[in-house]
């Protein structure tokens, strides 16, 4: 086969053009333009990749596509090798010299001076973020970081369960800053991307002379805001943490802002060093709780408004009542009924919604409801529902009420505010009741027996 350098370069250029056409992703094309096709040997294409970061990105996202496009042009090609280039080779193809080669092109493009990357979802802005009691504080803190040039707290640490809007808020910070301070650079990385960057830098080997710990830190030092998402994933990675700690201190000392997200409080992060937790705790810690019914309905209404078809309000209400776990699932359910209506040309109403979401709802139908718990507890202790929801404090009523709250927390997926609403109380009362019963169960045999009987009865329906 013809394996001359010109042919290889021509084939590579055609492949880059095809990817550009198919992906509409100018950042991807930029990474690809930094790659030099080297040779074809033993039916394998060898590509020289200028940095570990690009190596990783191409390996994970483009290698299969590149190989099959190459095979379209040359059926004999059997494989693709990505080789880290030690020194850039002179070539007709545009490639940067070692000195100007950006270390991280994930989210900051130095040569374009601080552009917002395609990794940020354009739909995730403050405008599309619906605010309610469960995320109000987190959203206000995120806005403050984005809009206020001075630093009043550092870092900002956002924590909460999956699908509750942490990533959305981080993207919103980046977009807002881009709007207000186009000269500032914002680097947003998943902790996985941070980790990949880091291991490359920490373990320089023969093929990797571009990176060093020092320029790893320098890279981060050059950004105005560093955001790392889901930092629980760097837990247990001792060396990464060590470097993260130094990077973190350096940035704070230079007056750069840091935003972190995780699935739990800093002190509950397993396998994170105490000094890092202490450092994080010096900033502002905000949490996002599961959304209440009102917020779920608000989010659905907002999402529905951006759709081309109208969704009846009783359907939105049905979704808000029945899909309580997190916002991502709520969105997923809405998308499913819309896709179904579009594909089948059928209307969206309660009946079609129930049928399309049968699998999700079936699981929930078998689940215990708070009203079942209230009825069962009332029957067991011979109380009325009014007694149970009243503010009467006699032990004969107060204890079953606390037990009912405890059972609601342990047997249903509802959040504390949701449970509170069913008992006409706020979430702190529910939390207190849960703690009280948890404390009593090991000591109070009668209460433990009652709890066991009720649990069995409720679960068996
Ligand atoms: P997390 O990072 O906490 O797991 P995400 O930020 O990825 O969650 O949110 C999951 C989905 O829910 C995203 O599509 C996001 O836009 C949406 N979402 C979450 N909270 C809100 C909100 N308050 N308003 C609008 N959309 C939201
Ligand atoms: Mg996330």
Can you put this structure into words, describing what you see?
With 461 residues, this protein is of the alpha/beta class. Helices cover 54% and strands 10% of the residues. The protein is built from 21 helices and eight strands. The strands form two sheets. A five-stranded parallel β-sheet has the order 5-6-7-4-8, with helices on both faces. A three-stranded mixed β-sheet has the order 1-2-3. Helix 16 (370-381) runs antiparallel to helix 18 (395-411). It is globular, with a radius of gyration of 28 Å. Mean pLDDT is 81; it is low at 86-118 and 206-211. Bound molecules: adenosine-5'-diphosphate and magnesium ion. Magnesium ion binds at residues 166-167, 229-230. Adenosine-5'-diphosphate binds at residues 124, 128-130, 135, 160, 162-168, 299, 327-328, 331.
Summarize the structure.
With about 450 residues, this protein is α/β, with parallel strands linked by helices. It has helices spanning about 5-25, 25-35, 50-60, 65-75, 135-145, 165-180, 190-200, 215-220, 240-255, 275-280, 295-305, 315-320, 325-345, 350-355, 360-365, 370-380, 385-390, 395-410, 415-420, 425-440, 445-460, and strands at about 35-40, 45-50, 80-85, 155-160, 185-190, 225-230, 255-260, 285-290. Magnesium ion binds near residues 166, 167, 229 and 230.
> Can you tell me the number of structural domains?
4
Helix residue percentage: 40-55%
Strand content: 5-15%
| CA-atom Rg in angstroms | 28 Å
């Amino acid at each position: 086969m013809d394996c001359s350098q010109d042919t290889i370069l021509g084939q590579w250029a055609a492949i880059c053009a095809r990817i550009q056409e198919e992906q509409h992703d100018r950042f991807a094309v930029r990474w690809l333009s930094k790659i030099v096709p080297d040779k074809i040997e033993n039916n394998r294409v060898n590509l020289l990749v200028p940095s570990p970061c690009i190596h990783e990105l191409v390996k994970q996202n483009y290698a299969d596509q590149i190989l099959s496009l190459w095979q379209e042009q040359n059926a004999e090609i059997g494989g693709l090798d990505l080789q880290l280039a030690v020194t850039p080779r002179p070539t007709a193809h545009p490639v940067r010299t070692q000195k100007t080669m950006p270390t991280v092109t994930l989210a900051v493009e130095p040569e374009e001076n601080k552009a917002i990357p395609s990794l940020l979802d354009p739909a995730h802005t403050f405008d599309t973020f619906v605010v309610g009691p469960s995320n109000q504080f987190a959203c206000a803190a995120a806005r403050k970081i984005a809009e206020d040039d001075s630093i009043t707290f550092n870092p900002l640490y956002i924590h909460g369960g999956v699908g509750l809007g942490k990533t959305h808020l981080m993207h919103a910070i980046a977009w807002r800053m881009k709007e207000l301070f186009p000269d500032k650079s914002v680097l947003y990385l998943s902790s996985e991307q941070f980790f990949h960057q880091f291991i490359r830098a920490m373990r320089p080997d023969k093929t990797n002379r571009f990176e060093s710990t020092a320029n790893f830190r320098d890279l981060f030092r050059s950004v105005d805001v560093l955001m790392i998402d889901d930092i629980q994933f760097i837990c247990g990675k001792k060396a990464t943490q060590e470097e993260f700690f130094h990077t973190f201190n350096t940035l704070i000392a230079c007056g750069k802002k840091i935003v972190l997200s995780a699935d739990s409080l800093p002190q509950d992060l397993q396998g994170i060093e105490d000094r890092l937790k202490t450092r994080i705790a010096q900033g502002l810690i905000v949490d996002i709780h599961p959304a209440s019914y009102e917020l779920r309905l608000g989010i659905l209404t907002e999402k529905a408004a951006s759709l081309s078809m109208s969704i009846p309000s009783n359907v939105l209400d049905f979704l808000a009542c029945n899909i309580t776990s997190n916002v991502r699932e709520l969105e997923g359910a809405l998308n499913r009924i819309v896709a179904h209506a579009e594909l089948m040309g059928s209307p969206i109403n309660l009946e079609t919604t129930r049928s399309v979401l049968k699998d999700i709802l079936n699981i929930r139908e078998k689940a215990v409801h708070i009203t079942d718990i209230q009825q069962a507890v009332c029957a067991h202790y011979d109380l009325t529902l009014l007694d149970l929801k009243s503010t009467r404090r006699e032990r004969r009523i107060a204890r079953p009420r606390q037990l009912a709250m405890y059972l609601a927390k342990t047997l249903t997926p509802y959040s504390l505010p949701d449970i509170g609403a069913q008992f006409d109380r706020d979430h702190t009362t529910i939390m207190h009741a849960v703690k009280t019963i948890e404390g009593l169960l090991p000591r109070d045999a009668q209460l433990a027996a009652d709890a066991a009987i009720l649990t069995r009865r409720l679960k068996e329906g």
